[in-house]
Amino acid sequence: MAKKKNVNEMSFLDHLEELRWLLIRSTLAIVIASTVAFFFSDFIFDKIIFGPKDPNFITYRWFCEVSKFFGSTGEGFCDYKINFDVQSRVMSGQFNAHIWTSITAGFILAFPFILWECWKFISPALYDKEEKNAKLFLAVASFLFFLGVLFGYFIITPLSINFLAGYQVSTQIHNDIDLDSYISLIRSTTLSCGLVFELPIVMFFLSKLGLITPTFLRKYRKYAIVIILIIAAIVTPPDVVSQIIVTIPLLILYELSIFISGWVLKNKLKNEQSS
After folding, report:
1. Could you tell me how many helices (H) and strands (E) the chain has, helices first?
2. Do 109 and 157 reside in the same domain of the chain?
3. What distance in Å separates the CA atoms of residue 29 and residue 224, rounded to the nearest whole number?
4. Where in the sequence is the domain holding 104, given as residue range(s)?
5. Of the residues 3, 106, 177, 189, which has the maximum number of CB atoms within 10 A of its CB?
6. Tally of domains in the chain
7. Are residues 118 and 16 part of one domain?
8. How far apart are the C-alpha atoms of 113 and 213, rounded to whole Å?
9. Last residue within a domain, chosen from 197, 215, 237
10. Alpha-carbon span 105 to 41, nearest angstrom
11. Alpha carbon of 249 to those of 70, 244, 255: distances in Å?
12. Are residues 83 and 252 in contact, defined by beta-carbon separation less than 8 angstroms?
């Protein structure tokens, strides 16, 4: 199959020009989405940002029920109490938090458009058959990203807040958490989980380039499992049920990456034999 005919006609400066417009359009999409989020600050802050701070947050209630179902006491979830206050200690603290939270929300909302722009940038180098899979790529990549964001917000963030807020070295210390620190925790966990859930997509392209093979991933599976267990132990309270809940999705992502890498390699060998 022939590649798009203009790929070899584009000079280095032409590629830079395309990249420049990609960045401009992506930035504009983030700005527009951020502006929309800016005017919904009451909902974003009261319901979303400070949601995991509420003892009645859905995650705490769910973990409580799950812990009881498996015979655990559900300690830390069923009797969760707020023992910290969030405060802004600089004059522009709340304004800066409003701006950067809106930008973060804008990036999340505009992520499918950014993916589409990236796909258009690399599409001239793809085969016709591969280019037809643009909609599938966009749907799968966007789904994994939003799934990761939800996982980070509803699972990792409440567990982190529950653990860090409840950690105490002395009864004489009262937690007065800075607004920026609190929002940074939520922002980093949600965005990082969203990007981590893109692992199968990354493995797909690395396998296409021949940098990763299913044999390599299977060989180092045991090390990956150890790393995943360590991550789960760090971000969760000392409770087996919560650690398992965090570990399972990460293991599924790794196994899915092995399957995708094997599928890419199989198709690559098939195409080489038929050519």
Report:
1. 12, 2
2. yes
3. 36
4. 5-197
5. 189
6. 2
7. yes
8. 30
9. 197
10. 11
11. 19, 9, 10
12. no
Verify that 23 and 140 share a domain, yes or no.
Answer: yes
Distance CA 226, CA 124 (A): 40
My answer on whether 229 and 181 are in the same domain is: no
Specify whether 165 is located in the same domain as 39. yes
* CA quadruple 226, 228, 232, 235: dihedral, nearest 10: 120
Q: Are residues 154 and 203 in the same domain?
A: no
Q: Are 168 and 258 in contact (CB under 8 A)?
A: no
Q: How far apart are the first and last CA of the chain?
A: 10
Is residue 247 located within the same domain as residue 177? no
Number of other residues whose CB lies within 10 A of the CB of residue 236:
24
* 178/86 same-domain check: yes
Please report, in tens digits, the pLDDT of each residue of the chain (275 residues total).
444 445 556 666 766 888 888 899 999 999 999 999 999 999 999 999 999 888 888 888 887 787 777 766 555 567 667 778 889 888 999 999 999 999 999 999 999 999 888 887 776 655 566 666 777 888 889 999 999 999 989 988 888 888 777 777 887 777 888 999 899 989 988 998 898 888 888 888 888 778 888 888 888 888 888 888 887 777 665 556 667 777 888 889 889 989 988 888 887 777 777 76
Q: pTM for this structure?
A: 0.82
